[in-house]
Write a structure and sequence with these properties.
Elements: E1 2-14, E2 17-23, E3 39-46, E4 49-56, E5 67-72, H1 78-85, E6 92-96, E7 109-116, H2 120-133, E8 137-145, H3 154-163, E9 168-174, H4 190-200, E10 208-212, H5 215-222
Parallel strand pairs: 7-8, 7-10, 8-9
Antiparallel strand pairs: 1-2, 1-6, 2-5, 3-4, 3-6
Bound molecules: flavin-adenine dinucleotide (FAD).
Length: about 220
């Protein structure tokens, strides 16, 4: 079932991505409470035709649900073009309750996220909730983006590093930029992960892996 929700805030994350926050009325608080990693479906009807797309919730799970998604522009994409070029604060969008099983309910342990591009969105919610709610948990985030300027949620991830220096580890690779201080360049492909992972972690002692991003990256990481 879809619920009409008002857009409360639109924040530009990069040249081609925005974060959209919806106002959740008090009576829908329980409906929109999410487990970190879940997504929502958004629906728009144009000329009688329904466009329905899925976006991951990027905010941590808290008692007072903060419903925010990060949307990256896809060239000629019907919904993302509307979200970036037309959608405005105060507009109403039809939103379905959070769903999905790509989740982590906070528990002690060592968890790893390997993400590419907008794949950061659910993993940001997972890592932020875990670190805030579970003092005996650690999270290692290995992320890949084309350039620093195109990286979604750069600040939010940097905040995690400042807030949890002992429990949050970040490796950020940029595939289209020359190597910068502390940032290895090049694609995060299978050979790269094979050399990187054993140097970073005890692979056998990882309690959960969260892979999200382009097909090739997820396949390589799985192997
Ligand atoms: C579980 C899940 C979570 C997701 N989370 C996020 C997220 O957090 N952030 C995010 O940005 N995205 C996310 N996505 C992707 C998102 O759902 C959309 O797929 C994405 O925004 C593109 O939608 P669109 O309507 O803009 O593009 P579409 O209109 O679906 O078009 C996509 C591409 O296909 C091409 N195309 C469309 N129609 C045709 C056609 N008839 N012939 C040939 N080519 C065509 C378009 O040119 C475009 O390049 C998620 C997807 C899933 C499944």
């Amino acid at each position: 079932m879809f619920h009409p929700l008002q857009v409360r805030e639109i924040e530009r994350l990069t040249d081609d991505a925005v974060a959209v926050t919806f106002a959740v009325p008090h009576e829908l608080r329980e409906t929109f409470r999410h487990t970190p990693g879940q997504h929502i479906a958004l629906r728009r009807t144009v000329d009688g035709q329904e466009i329905r797309r899925t976006y991951s919730i990027c905010t941590p799970a808290t008692d007072e649900p903060l419903l925010r998604v990060g949307i990256r522009l896809v060239e000629d994409g019907a919904f993302s073009t509307y979200a970036l070029k037309e959608l405005a604060v105060g507009d109403t969008v039809e939103v379905m309750a959070p769903a999905g099983r790509f989740t982590l309910a906070p528990r002690p342990g060592h968890f790893v996220g390997i993400v590419g591009g907008s794949g950061i969105t659910p993993v940001l919610s997972i890592a932020a909730t875990l670190l805030a709610q579970q003092p005996d948990a650690r999270f290692c985030l290995i992320r890949s983006d084309r350039t620093a300027a195109s990286t979604m949620f750069l600040e939010e991830v940097a905040d995690l590093k400042d807030r949890y220096p002992d429990r949050f580890q970040l490796i950020h690779t940029l595939s289209r930029e020359e190597q910068q201080a502390g940032l290895p360049s090049g694609r995060l492909d299978e050979p790269r992960l094979r050399s990187l992972l054993p140097a970073l972690l005890k692979i056998d002692s990882v309690d959960g892996w969260y892979l999200c991003g382009p097909y090739g990256l997820v396949q390589g990481a799985e192997r």
